[in-house]
Structure formats: C-alpha cells, structure tokens
Amino acid sequence: MTRSNHNNVDEFLSLKRIVVLSLAITGIYYLLYFLSHYFGRPSFANTNNTEMVRQEAQESRQGATVQFDEAQRHVGPPAGHPQAERVAPRRPNFLLLILFNVPLTFVMVFAVFLYNRKIMGLPIKRFYDEVAAIVVGSLAIAMALSVLSTLLQLWVFPHPPGPPRSTMQAIRRGCIGDLPLMFFVVMACYLLRSLHKEKVVAVENETLRAENIRTRYEALKNQLDPHFLFNSLNTLQSLVELDPDKAEDFIQQLSSVLRYTLQGKEVTTLAEELDCVKAYCTMMKMRYGDNLRFVHQIDHERYDSYLVLPLSIQGLIENAIKHNVISSKQPLTIQVVTDENGRLVISNKIQPKIDPEEGSGIGLANLAERYRLKWNENVDIFDDGMNFSVTLPLKENEKAL
User: Fold this and answer.
1) What DSSP character marks residue 291?
2) Residue partners of 51: CB distance under 8 A and separation at least 6
3) How distant, in Å, are the alpha carbons of 66, 246, 276, 329 from that of 235?
4) Model confidence over 46-95: pLDDT tens digits?
5) What gap in Å lies between CA 151 and CA 126, rounded to an integer?
6) pLDDT tens by residue, 245-286
7) Taking CA 95 as the corner, what is the angle to CA 90 and CA 96, rounded to the nearest 5 degrees?
C-alpha cells in the first residue's frame, strides 16, 4: 500500500470512524432483531415450545423418555459435562443470548471494516477487481467469524431456546443471520468513499475557482495602475508647459495618489478612497480651473466605513474628464453622491467631443469585472445620450461593526 493511498483511506475510514460505525451497525441490527421478536411471532419460547419444555421436564422426572433422549441426541451435552438423565436442561433467557452475541457481532463487523479499509488502501487499478476482492474477502471473514461465534454460543449455552437443532443447522442459521451485516459494512465503506470523493472534488473546484478569480482580479488591477499613471503623466506634461508652479503642486498631489495606489489593498473604505479622489480632483482643478467642477454629497457619518474597490471612483472621474468637452463655454460638473440604498453614484452631463478619444477598453469593463469577481455585485451603468452615471455598490464593513 502506497503512503498516499493509505492517507487517503484514513480521511474517510479512520479507525475512530470504524469503531463508531461498528457500534452503530451492531446496535441497530440487534434493536431491529429485538423489535421483530417482540412485536412479531416469537422466534423462541412460544406456546408450543414452552409446553414442550414442561412436558420434557415432567417426563424427565418420571424417567428418561424417548422424546427427551431424541432432544439430547440433537443438541447433545457440552464436552466435560455429565449426561443429564433425569433433570431437564435449563434453557437460557432470550435477552441473555442477545447480550452474549452483541460483542461477538461487533468483532465481526469491526473485522470486516478493517479488511475493507485495507483493500481500499491498495493501489488496485480496476474497480471490478477491487469489488471482487472486497466482497469475497468480506464474505469469508464474516462467515468464518459467524461459525466461530455459533460454536462458542453452543459451548456456553448447549440448550438454546427454540426447537432442537443440530450443530450444522445452528451454524447455517447463524451465517444467514450475519450475512446482511457484511453487505451493510461493504455498502457503508463505498458510500463513505463516494461522499469523500465528492467533497474532495468540490474543495478542489472551489480552490481552482478562487485561484482563477484571484489571478484574474490581480491581472485587472495591474492593468489599471499603468493606465492611471499614463494619464497622470500626460496631465503633468501639460502643466509643466503652462505653469511650472502648478506642476510642482501637481506632483505633490500625484505622490499622494500614487502612495495610496501602491498600498496594494484589495479593498478600501470609502473614506480612504475619497481622500485619494480629493487629491486627484485637486490635480485636475490645477489643469482645468473653474471649467471643471466637483460636487460631493456623501453621507460620511453612515458610509465612511463602507468598502469599495481601490481607484474605482478615481477611474470613473478620469473617464468623465477624458471623454467630455471641458471649456469655459461648457464647464463639466461631476457629481459623487451616496443614495439611501447604500450605493455610490458618479454622474455627469454628456458633453461629447468633436473628435472622441478611443478608449483602451479597460475602464468600465475592468471596473465591472472587478466588482463581479470580488463581491459578485453588479455595476449599474446609465446612458441616455444626455446624462451618464455609474452606480457602485457599497459593501458594509463587518470589522467596523
């Protein structure tokens, strides 16, 4: 048995589980047996048998009758015991027999479980070969232990209740009674292995799914950072040519934004994201002046601790600036507001450029995919040709509760 197979068997058929299952199967088996005896037609000590015992006792007191001698030939006294000639044999109680057989049955069930555990741990390639080995071996073990159990019972209780039976009849009856236990054990082993395989497959699939989501999320996030940096450097280049002093302030604000970006967080609070947004808006105001306006209507008391994805708001503001006309005749106003449904809405009036810039396809698709992968949430996009808005879900921060 290879070590990997052995460890695999231990996961669904450990010794502790075998003991528990053996006790459960043995207990249920004898509970059903006792109930069927109690509520059904008695297997032992019925009226006829009781009357027969009384008759045998009476006849034995009068002398060894032919009927008693016949019973003695069928049952026979145990080895080492004197021949009972004038006193009727004392028959054990039905409950006493049950209590005597319970540990013997437990040993048999436990042994069959151990054999199944051994075979299932072997590197058998063909399933049918394994099934054949398990069924044949389990049957042999169960029948051998059943025979030993019957012989031990006859030695301890030479005169069991019920009609007289020969040793072979008692062995055959015991084997037939113990046969279902063997099948219960085999079925339980295969059921446990099947459930274990399903659990392993489910865990592996979930692991692969989580790894795939993490990889895709990281790829999308890595796409976002160069995109933001590229646009910021273009803006800085314009400011250097127009106003070097503003360019210096712009660099300070850019350093704040980049510091925030380089934190590498998967999620951030709305308050932290808004600090970055304010720095970015300051950068853009240095370039566009009063032609660009920002309106923030945020319920800070309620939503500051809620979670958003980093640079999600900043990316939407960046896209609005990129794709709309911003001039003294057509100033652009970008609104960032929270609603009563726990969402954040970024909106602006559409002011299309004469020569619209071609996007790289990262922006909105990137943002929507990130929210879907991270929280399985949708990003709502509204565009009626006059107004454009994007609604982001705000996730409640459990740590802040």
Assistant:
1) G
2) none
3) 121, 11, 17, 21
4) 434 444 444 444 444 444 444 444 444 444 454 444 444 444 455 556 67
5) 38
6) 878 888 888 888 878 877 767 789 999 999 989 998 988 888
7) 55
Measure the CA–CA gap between 34 and 370, rounded to whole angstroms: 63
Task: Decide if 239 contacts 250 (C-beta within 8 A).
Answer: yes
* CA 138 – CA 390 distance, rounded (Å): 67
Mean pLDDT, residues 4-16: 72
Of 334, 322, 319, the residue nearest 366 (C-alpha): 319
Cβ neighbours for 273, distance < 8 A, ≥ 6 positions apart: 308, 310, 311, 312, 313, 314
What is this structure's pTM?
A: 0.48
Structure tokens given for 268: 């951030």
Phi, psi of 268 (to 5 degrees): -150, 165
- How large is the C-alpha radius of gyration of the chain? 42
Q: Are 263 and 225 in contact (CB under 8 A)?
A: no
Distance CA 388, CA 363 (A): 14
Phi and psi dihedrals of 41, rounded to 5?
Answer: -75, 125
What is the rounded CA–CA span in Å between residue 355 and residue 343? Answer: 33
| Residue appearing with tokens 């704040």 | 256
Q: What's the CA dihedral at 353, 238, 235, 357 to 10 degrees?
A: 20
- Dig out the tokens for 212 from the structure: 């795939």
What beta strand segments (E) does 202-242 contain?
A: none
Euclidean distance between CA atoms 188 and 119, whole angstroms: 14
Q: How far is CA 194 from the centre of its chain?
A: 14
- Region 120-130: what's the mean pLDDT? 86
Residue located via tokens 């459960």: 24
The DSSP H or E segment spanning 84 is none
Tell me if 231 sits within 8 A of 322, measured CB to CB. Answer: yes
* C-alpha to C-alpha distances, 398 to 187, 275, 310, 394, nearest whole angstrom: 45, 21, 18, 12
Single out the residue of 184, 181, 189 nearest to residue 149, CA to CA: 181
